[in-house]
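FORM 7B: Structural annotation worksheet

SECTION A. Query
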Amino acid sequence: MSDVILQLNDIVKSYNHGKPNEIEVLRGASLSLEKGEVVAMVAPSGAGKSTLLHIAGLLDTADRGQVTLCGEDMTHRSDRARTAARRTQVGFVYQFHHLLPEFTAAENIVLPQLAAGLGSSAAQSRAKRLLATVGVDERAGHRPAEMSGGEQQRVAFCRALANEPALLLADEPTGNLDPATSDQVFDSLMTLARDTGLSALIATHNMELAARMDRTVRLESGVLV
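SECTION B. Predicted structure
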């Protein structure tokens, strides 16, 4: 298999097609992300970062261009095939953790594994290992409301990696945290990435964090530079 995990070729995306207020958000964005590479994507608000991440993660489709994930061209695949690829190959983390409030930290990580067909014992074992990796294993039995913001976001990282995806997409994952907590959470993310060997594309406004990744791309006028 190719070492390129994600390939975006000339991605174009507009909203309000054919209307006077049509907005062209992406104008030919291209990116190649290799196995084990952690890349920062920086851009001002409204530049299209979230749109690009949704297209890369098969949550949305481009008007034109090609999306290749783990060597498979996903551009014209069926919704069923895209959903299957997204479930097994992609993990998502957002600015807000979106943990299920009625479940514990461990249960939030176990559930996606059970949905993917893994047995309960193996799922619980993996949840424990992930929580230990980011230093919140003592919170395994706590619900989100009983954890700090930084702890909740670390659990969200673990949940995103529960099914061992090849690609992690993160949209301002530390944007809702104070600087000190943001730094700790980012360290946890990098530990997870390095330990698992996954590739990651992380949208961030934090240039200090961006500088600690393998490289930085900037979204300008709808293209990546």
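SECTION C. Observations
The CA atoms of residues 150 and 180 lie 10 Å apart. The chain is about 35% helix and 25% strand.

SECTION D. Sign-off
Analyst initials: ____
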